[in-house]
Design brief:
Pathway: Carbohydrate biosynthesis; gluconeogenesis; Carbohydrate degradation; glycolysis; D-glyceraldehyde 3-phosphate from glycerone phosphate: step 1/1. This is Triosephosphate isomerase. Homodimer. One of its GO terms (cellular component) is cytosol. The structure is a single chain. With 262 residues, this protein is α/β, with parallel strands linked by helices. It has a single domain, classed as TIM Barrel. 43% of the residues lie in helices and 14% in strands. It is built from twelve helices and eight strands. Strands 7-6-5-4-3-2-1-8 form an eight-stranded parallel β-sheet. The protein starts with 7 loop residues before the first strand and ends with a helix. The structure holds glyceraldehyde-3-phosphate. The site of glyceraldehyde-3-phosphate has 14 residues, from strand 8.
Length: 262
């Protein structure tokens, strides 16, 4: 991991933990990281609760001045109007979200989100002052047919076409076959794709954007395997699903520097 990119350890809770559970979780997480003298200047930690938890999480983090960031798991491509069930980026920003996940494979798969929709959501996030955490990744079939990098790179290119060179963006490489499977990509496999993604960032947005944009790996990350990913030069953190629901496990992932020997 390059020294000029602050690593980001992000927990995507998906559809887990209600607002009461979210309060207990965030309190325990902050306590656990404080106990362990986690260095928040060296590693940024963020949680992505369900929409219904965001107000509780915001209130707790603000009241106790907890050094945690948070964001939504999705955002509408529209800012307001007759879109039943959708959540505006303006609403997320009003709740002081810093980030929003865009284009997660579960949204692409279960909600038929196309590259075009994902690109519109990236724009909506930026328009509303949110940093998009743009997810890209190939299925097992994609991998067999096109190799490791073609699909994630094409998804990235489609989502960032037309963005200004100064756009603040996080990219999360999540091979679909690794998500929730217990079988992560190897650090070397993940590095190969993340390097290709960085090259695509450079081609689209220039050298500075490529050098400053954080690229996360996601897919069956846990405390026992985080160090291998964080040793890779083009991996700047992790987007964690299942393991982010266990406070001790997630805190241990956030303290990856101990595992890496830093
Ligand atoms: O957003 C997170 C990813 O989908 C990874 O999920 P997982 O850690 O449960 O494999």
């Amino acid at each position: 991991m390059a020294v000029n990119r602050t690593p980001l350890i992000a927990g995507n809770w998906k559809m887990n933990l209600d607002h009461l559970q979210s309060i207990a979780f965030v309190q325990k997480l902050a306590w656990s990281l404080k106990d362990a003298r986690h260095d928040f200047d060296q590693v940024e930690v963020a949680v992505f609760p369900p929409f219904t938890d965001l107000r509780s999480v915001q209130t707790l983090i603000a009241a106790d001045k907890l050094p945690l960031e948070f964001g939504g798991q999705d955002v509408s491509q529209h800012d307001s109007g007759a879109y039943t069930g959708e959540i505006s980026g303006a609403f997320l920003r009003a709740l002081e979200c810093k980030y929003v996940i865009v284009g997660h494979s579960e949204r692409r798969q279960y909600h038929a989100e196309t590259d075009e929709v994902v690109a519109a959501k990236v724009s909506a996030a930026r328009r509303n002052g949110l940093v998009p955490v743009l997810c890209v990744g190939e299925t097992a079939d994609d991998l067999e047919q096109h190799g490791p990098s073609a699909v994630p790179v094409a998804q990235l290119q489609a989502a960032i076409a037309g963005l200004p060179k100064t756009a603040d963006l996080v990219v999360a490489y999540e091979p679909v076959w690794a998500i929730g499977s217990g079988t992560p990509a190897t650090p070397e496999q993940a590095q190969t794709v993340c390097k290709a993604l960085r090259t695509a960032l450079e081609e689209a947005l220039g050298q500075d954007a490529a050098a400053s944009t954080r690229i996360l790996y996601g897919g069956s990350v846990k405390a026992a395997n985080i160090a291998g990913f964080m040793r890779q030069p083009d991996i700047d953190g992790a987007l964690v699903g299942g393991a982010s629901l266990d406070v001790a496990e997630f805190a241990s992932i956030a303290r990856y520097r101990q595992h890496v020997g830093l």
